[in-house]
Each structure stands twice: as structure tokens, then as C-alpha cells.
């Protein structure tokens, strides 16, 4: 960062100043001088301040380039502008129209340049420490002496990684650190930050952001993210407690974050992972088909799969419009609280969880009420694999959960839990053929019924769908459709007449059931909405030759 004549001029706008820049190549300022009468050697990088017309004349006739003139009156100000513009050698002039402010301007600029020189010295010191191989803790300790305010280095789950060792442990500082204790201390802040899109503000900016939330407390915080290989990895939170923030504190924190990033990259994934053995094993199984050799002895994942009645893979993703405003690492910790014993990992932009279940009964949506509440509260969606019992099956079941998430979020957008067992047939159909071919494999009876419903505004297609879903049980179907059984019997008779089929045939029932799934996957059918078509389009356009 440099102090330029333009930046100085913008700072002095409150004093009624005017800037005339004639030498664009000489606008960097690193010094300021007052009372120029006694000066003999003039530096092109210094801004000289005077309120004397005589001194101004000497400066204009000298090799001096940058001048701030505190004009004693309007006439003197206009005269200075005219003299400067007529000079054969270009000058840079800041005209201050209120001479009484000259001393105040000098002191303000002097303090600014002192802070700038101190900032540069501090940056050089941190760089030298990094080059000398100082560890992360020493880097933070040194930065505390420069910032003169408490700060914390935390991972993306809001769990403390490190703090300066010389922090004053009084009540406000202790409360600040307790926010990042990894035991839910940040939970009270999370909703406030998320609702006001503070996470998005910090995540999308590489420059430190000032956060003040009176709903939480009356303090100010400077928060900046830390990226490793372009990915968010951690953040630094500075607590405005011992002194007010200075503008160069923001610059210094930005530099510190880059150095912390370089230092953290020296450690491997294993040494940085909060779960260590568990995360390492899960990460390995997701990346490779084979088991690591040897399997870490302390892994809860390896012991859980051998003792539990079943394991499930969960893939949880955030809706796109909330992606930059959601902290997945924090939510992964909440997930571990909801699913005791689960191992979680952030992988390819999603929360991956390996969850165990002691009961031999298959997993049902009602078993996951707390999970559904979390998903709904944070705009999340979750795909769940089928049950498995062996570590070597982690990767294929992860792929099941991911496919369930993909299909479910497309076909059933109003839901948040998608079980793969519900989407197995869709997965097979998608793998085996294209969308256009799906339509050609559908039973022609559906085309006939859809065309009839479209022409006469009837509901025979949805009646058939419900009948097949209830395994041709008339009582359950009538109850699901909220109609009399006699009405259902009439509809079934009409369906058989219109489509020229006999619903008692098992092979036909299977084909019709698969046909509905094909249409749903192709986007041509959705239960409850009937036939998905544009106004004025008949059903036959999708199955030409069937009707």
C-alpha cells in the first residue's frame, strides 16, 4: 500500500481543498514538512506545507514537486492556481482554502505517514519471520504486538485453532474466545450472521470486513478469510477491545492472513483435519476404491462399521442461492450432534456423513426429524444411501447418496430428504437410455389415457398411477383418492376400456409402473400435477405413433 497525493487529497476534502496534479509520475508521498523557510534540500517524495505567499513562491521556483498551500484568503488561492499553471516545470498543488487548518492538516498527515511506515516495518518483520521458518504460533504472537487487540485463528466450523499466547485473560476476552470453543459457543451468533448475510460478505471478500452486531454485543470485530489453494480454510477474527481499529490494521490483517495460509500449507491434510483418523479414512475411501493400508487403529469409522447393524452415507448440499452465505463446516458439527457417532467431512462442496444405526429396522424419514429440521432451517438438501456394513462399500454408497440427491432435488423439489431406495429405478433408467428413448419405451396405454384426459378434462391417468402405487388394492386406492370404492371401480373399468388393457396382468402392471417413472424422469409427468405439457399441446407429441 502506498500513500499518494490523490489519496491525501481525498482525505482532506473536509477541509475544503482543491487538487491540481500535473506530475502523475511523482504522486507517491512518504514524508510531510511544515515551515519550509528553513529547508535547503527538497525531496520529490515529500509534501511541503506552507501558508506564506513568499514561501510558496520559493517552492514554485525550486525543484520541489508536491506542495500544500494553506491560502490566507481567496485572492491568494486564485493567484496560487494561476502561478502553478503558468510554470514551465509541472508541479502538484493541493490548495487548502482555510489557512487556519494548516497545522491540523499537517498533524493528520504526519500521523498517517507514521502509521504507514509502521505498517511497512511490521510487514517486513512478518515476512522475515516466515522466511526464517518461524512456526504459526510465533507468527501470531508477533502479530498481536502489532495489532494491539485480541484475535483468534479459527477453522471454518468456528473452532479455535490458535491465539496469541500473551492475550489478557479478562472477562470480555474470555467471552470472545469462548465463542470459538467448538462446543456450540458460536451457535448464538450463527443465525444472526446468516440472516444478515455476514458470511457471504466475508467469504466473497479477500479484504478484512468490519462486523458490528448489536443483537450479539456492542463490540466491533474485523474478520478476514484465509484461503488455501483457492479454497476457504480458516479465518481470523480481531476483537476491537484494547484500542480502536486503525485503517492500517485492515491492511496488516490482510497480510497476516496470506502468511498464515502459507504456514498452514506446510502441514498435510491429516495434521490439519479436526477428526484426524476418522476424516483421513473417510477421505481416502471417497477418493479411492481400495482400503488404506494399514487402516488407522483409532478410527471410529472402522470400529463402527464392524459393530453397527448398518451404516448409511449422507450427502448434504446447500441450495445455490445460499451457498456463499452458509458455513458448511459449522453445520457439519451440528450434524454430528444430531447423529451421534457420525463421521463428517467437507468434500466437493458438500457435507459428507457416514452414519451408523444400531437397529436392524430400515431407516425411515420419521427417524430423522431433527435432521429434517436442520435441513429446512438452513436451505439444505440430503441424499441418503442404502444400508451397508463394510468399509469397502463406502464409495459406491456415497455415489448412491449423491445420485439420490441429484434425482430427488430435480423430481421432488419440495422435499429435503431423498432416500436412494426410492430412486433406484430412476437411476437405472437414467443409466440405460437417453430422455428421448425413455418416452419410446413407455407403454402406449399411457399416451392414450393422457390424450383422453387432456381432451375431456378427466383424471384417469392419475387414478391409474395411484392404483398401481397401492399395489392394485381398491380400498387403499379409494381412500388415497378420497372417493367411494364404487367410483374407483367405475374408473378402473373406463381405464381398461379407453386404453384396451387388463389390469390384472402382473407384467402389464410392472411395465405401466416403470412407464410412469420414465415419464417423471423425462419431465413429462409429476404425480399431483398430472401431465407436464405446455398449453395447447396434446400428449401425442411425446409418443408419436402410439396414439
From TrEMBL:
One Pfam family recorded for the sequence: HTH_30
Coiled-coil regions listed: none
Chain ranges of the PucR C-terminal helix-turn-helix domain: 462-516
PANTHER family reported for this sequence: CARBOHYDRATE DIACID REGULATOR, DNA-BINDING TRANSCRIPTIONAL ACTIVATOR ADER
UniProt protein name: PucR C-terminal helix-turn-helix domain-containing protein
Native organism: Paenibacillus helianthi
Amino acid at each position: 500500500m502506498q500513500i499518494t497525493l490523490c489519496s491525501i487529497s481525498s482525505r482532506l476534502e473536509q477541509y475544503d481543498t482543491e487538487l491540481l496534479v500535473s506530475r502523475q509520475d511523482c504522486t507517491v508521498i512518504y514524508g510531510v514538512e511544515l515551515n519550509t523557510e528553513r529547508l535547503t534540500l527538497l525531496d520529490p517524495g515529500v509534501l511541503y506545507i506552507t501558508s506564506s505567499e513568499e514561501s510558496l513562491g520559493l517552492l514554485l521556483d525550486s525543484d520541489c514537486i508536491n506542495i500544500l498551500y494553506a491560502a490566507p484568503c481567496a485572492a491568494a488561492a486564485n493567484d496560487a492556481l494561476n502561478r502553478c499553471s503558468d510554470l514551465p516545470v509541472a508541479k502538484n498543488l493541493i490548495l487548502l482554502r482555510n489557512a487556519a487548518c494548516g497545522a491540523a492538516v499537517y498533524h493528520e498527515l504526519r500521523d498517517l505517514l507514521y502509521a504507514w511506515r509502521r505498517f511497512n516495518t511490521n510487514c517486513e518483520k512478518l515476512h522475515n519471520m516466515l522466511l526464517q521458518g518461524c512456526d504459526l504460533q510465533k507468527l501470531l504472537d508477533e502479530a498481536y504486538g502489532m495489532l494491539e487487540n485480541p484475535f483468534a485463528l479459527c477453522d471454518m466450523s468456528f473452532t479455535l485453532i490458535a491465539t496469541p499466547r500473551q492475550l489478557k485473560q479478562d472477562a470480555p476476552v474470555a467471552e470472545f474466545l469462548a465463542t470459538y470453543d467448538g462446543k456450540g459457543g458460536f451457535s448464538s451468533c450463527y443465525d444472526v450472521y446468516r440472516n444478515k448475510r455476514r458470511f457471504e460478505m466475508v467469504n466473497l471478500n479477500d479484504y478484512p470486513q468490519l462486523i458490528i452486531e448489536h443483537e450479539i454485543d456492542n463490540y466491533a470485530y474485523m474478520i478476514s478469510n484465509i484461503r488455501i489453494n483457492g479454497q476457504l480454510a480458516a479465518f481470523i477474527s480481531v476483537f476491537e477491545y484494547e484500542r480502536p481499529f486503525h485503517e492500517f490494521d485492515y491492511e496488516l490483517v490482510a497480510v497476516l492472513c496470506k502468511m498464515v495460509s502459507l504456514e498452514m500449507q506446510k502441514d498435510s491434510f491429516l495434521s490439519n483435519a479436526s477428526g484426524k483418523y476418522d476424516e483421513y479414512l473417510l477421505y481416502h475411501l471417497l477418493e479411492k476404491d481400495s482400503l488404506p493400508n494399514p487402516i488407522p487403529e483409532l478410527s471410529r469409522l472402522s470400529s463402527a462399521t464392524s459393530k453397527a447393524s448398518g451404516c448409511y452415507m449422507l450427502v448434504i448440499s446447500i441450495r445455490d442461492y445460499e451457498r456463499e452465505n452458509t458455513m458448511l463446516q459449522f453445520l457439519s458439527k451440528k450434524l454430528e450432534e444430531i447423529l451421534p457417532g457420525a463421521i463428517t467431512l467437507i468434500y466437493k462442496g458438500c457435507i459428507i456423513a457416514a452414519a451408523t444405526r444400531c437397529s436392524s429396522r430400515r431407516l425411515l424419514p420419521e427417524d430423522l426429524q431433527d435432521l429434517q429440521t436442520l435441513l429446512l432451517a438452513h436451505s439444505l438438501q440430503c441424499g441418503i444411501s442404502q444400508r451397508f456394513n463394510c468399509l469397502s462399500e463406502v464409495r459406491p454408497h456415497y455415489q448412491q447418496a449423491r445420485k439420490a440427491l441429484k434425482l430427488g432435488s430435480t423430481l421432488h423439489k419440495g422435499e429435503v430428504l431423498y432416500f436412494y431406495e426410492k430412486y433406484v429405478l430412476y437411476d437405472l433408467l437414467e443409466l440405460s437410455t437417453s430422455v428421448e428413448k425413455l418416452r419410446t419405451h413407455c407403454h402406449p396405454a399411457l399416451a392414450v389415457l393422457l390424450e383422453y384426459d387432456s381432451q375431456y378434462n378427466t383424471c384417469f391417468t392419475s387414478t391409474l398411477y395411484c392404483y398401481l402405487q397401492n399395489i392394485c388394492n381398491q380400498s387403499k386406492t379409494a381412500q388415497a383418492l378420497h372417493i367411494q370404492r364404487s367410483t374407483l371401480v367405475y374408473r378402473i373399468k373406463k381405464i381398461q376400456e379407453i386404453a384396451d388393457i387388463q389390469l390384472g396382468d402382473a407384467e402389464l402392471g410392472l411395465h405401466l409402473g416403470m412407464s410412469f417413472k420414465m415419464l417423471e424422469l423425462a419431465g413429462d409427468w409429476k404425480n399431483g400435477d398430472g401431465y407436464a405439457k405446455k398449453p395447447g399441446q396434446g400428449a401425442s407429441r411425446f409418443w408419436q405413433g402410439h396414439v
